[in-house]
Amino acid sequence: MGFLPLLVLLIAAVLVAYFLGTYLRRLDPSESSAAKTILRRLARPAPDRKTEAVVRWLLSQAFEQTGVRVADDELAYGRIVEAAAKAVEHLKEQEEASISLPFLTADETGPKHFETQVTRKLLEELVRD
pTM of the full predicted structure? Predict the structure, then answer.
C-alpha cells in the first residue's frame, strides 16, 4: 500500500471523528433519551452481567435511602456503576463488599449520602433472577 492511500484514509478518519464529535456536542441530553444513551455508551464501556445486576440493585437501594432517583443524575449514576464494578471485583475474593458514596446526590433538603453492603450470596441471587 502506497503513501497516498494511507493519507486519504487518515484524512477520512479525522473528518469522521470531527463530524461525529460536532454532532454529539449539539445533542442536548435533557431533550432526548437517545442522546443520553449515545453519550453514556461513548463515555464508558457497558458493564458485564454481574455489574449490571448490582447497578440495578444499588439504584433501588439508593432510592430507598435517599428518596432521589439517582439514575436521572449522570454523575451519581456513574459513581454507582463504578462502585458496582469495584464491588463485583472485590466479591471475587471476599464474602462481602462495603459501598460508601458520600454526597452521591442532593435535593432541596441537602446532600444525600449512600452506604450499603453487598454479599457474594446477594450477587448470586441478583444474577440468577
Answer: 0.64
